Amino acid sequence: MKCRECEYASVHTYPRRGNGYSAHIGQFLQEASFCKHPDCKPPGPLLFYGKTAPQYADVPAWKKANNINSKTQIVCWPLVKLGDRVFHLSTQAAGRMGATDSDNGGCPAESPSNKSLQIDSAVLADGTVILLDLQQANYLNSNGIVTALNFIGGYVLWGNETACFPADTDVKNYFICISRMFGWVANTLVLSYWSKVDKKMTRRLIDSIVDSVNIWLNGLTNEEKLLGGRVEFKEEENSTTALMAGKAVFHIYMTPPSPAKELEFVLEYDAEYVSAALAA
Phi, psi at residue 133, to the nearest 5°? Predict the structure, then answer.
């Protein structure tokens, strides 16, 4: 570090870019000492030092160390910017989810992933610009981390997994849109049938609830917000003792659609088209 300390050294901030053999991610800025000593051969040694951008590969370890693993949590990295304003990516993600829900009639059936964000860059707290490629973004996703990706047509939110992934591989827990659908259906049922609480426990009440819930679930299925759904009033879940105590259980079966995470196109050369096109 001699050049850094001598009178001919000057400190500047230089843009750098990591690669497959680098310990750094994407494009980042780093302080360096540039020597102009007359005995140094041009352009002189460039000694990098100081704080550098963290590795994207370190983010899963941070998540694990901080015990962030709930199906109700979404881990977002890094920060993002629009002009001079810096946002937590989670703020943008919340707005993106709200906009996507609104586009689907207020229903969270569709994933917010791969939909545009109101940002022009992704950054760290010190202003370092982060440029992730698709492979790096997918690596974060595979560890239950949502990020921002500029791949085609500007920045989008990228990732479908809640914080419980990959430890929890139950689809209804780790897919953001499916987990939210279960919460949305549960909340809608409470709001819709709260007025039925403390009504007379009769067969007509039970049948009316079953019929109306099934009609609603069928409507969600027709709108492709569910692949299918039904409600049952099951005898084994409603004992005589429980019914005498005024407790009724309605069992709902439902399957929200999964996001289309991967679309693969297989291309094959078919020689039969040659014969068909060129035959005399």
Answer: -90, 175
Instruction: List b or e across 8-32, with b for residues whose CB sees 16 or more CB atoms inside 10 angstroms.
Output: ebeeeeeebebeeeeebbbebbbeb
Burial 170-198 (b: 16+ CB within 10 A, else e): eeebbbbbbbbbbebbeeebeeeeeeeee
pLDDT tens, position by position, 187-209: 999 999 999 999 999 999 999 99
Do the beta carbons of residue 193 and residue 180 sit within 8 Å?
no
Q: Do 69 and 51 form a contact (C-beta atoms < 8 A)? A: no
Is the pLDDT assigned to residue 163 strictly greater than 50? yes
> In this structure, what are the phi and psi dihedrals at residue 214, rounded to the nearest 5 degrees?
-65, -40
- Cβ atoms < 10 Å from Cβ of 100: 19
**Strand ranges (DSSP E) for the chain?**
9-17, 27-35, 46-48, 75-76, 79-82, 85-88, 115-116, 121-123, 145-150, 155-158, 228-232, 251-255
Q: What is the dihedral of CA 107, 113, 118, 122, to 10 degrees?
A: 150
Lookup: tokens for 276: 């068909």
- Residue closest to 217 by CA, chosen among 270, 253, 187, 174: 253
What is the torsional sign of CA 80, 82, 87, 88?
A: negative
Question: Span 128-154, mean pLDDT?
Answer: 95
Instruction: Give the model confidence (pLDDT) of 58-86 as tens digits.
Output: 899 999 999 999 999 999 999 999 999 99
